[in-house]
């Protein structure tokens, strides 16, 4: 009754029916899991494998891009000390490293959910880089 494509869409959206035998229904869809602090992968339900403070961008089991953490500050994202003095060379290298991992161009053949997460990650990295690169915006970010 359920084709492979319909089953995959229901699984991604978190709408797998409870009455289908052999499957555990997902408690919520990927968007609400992105808002929660759940340590589980949105795609396979696996554990990210490290402590929650660790920088986990991809699930180690299925290699799916995970949702960005909206509570993470720019300094920890860019791997910088939380101070006014920032090594701009290190900041630029970290920016390039993160963009090589999460830029939307690298997710063109992935699911729509991963494309959306990629856009969010890339926007967050761009904002963090621009804010920490300029001394005035960095200072304002520090005091806020």
Secondary structure category:
mainly alpha
Question: Mean pLDDT, rounded to whole units?
Answer: 78
**Global outline:** elongated
Low-confidence stretches: 9-36
Order of helices and strands: HHHHHH
Give a short summary of the structure.
46% of the residues lie in helices and 0% in strands. The protein has helices at residues 4-13, 30-35, 74-77, 88-102, 112-133, 135-143.
Overview of the molecule:
Helix content is 46%, strand content 0%. By secondary structure, it is mainly alpha-helical. It is elongated, with a radius of gyration of 18 Å. The protein starts with a helix and ends with a helix. Mean pLDDT is 78; it is low at 9-36.
Question: What are the SSEs and their pairings?
Answer:
Layout: H1 4-13, H2 30-35, H3 74-77, H4 88-102, H5 112-133, H6 135-143
Which characteristics define this entry?
mainly alpha; 6 helices
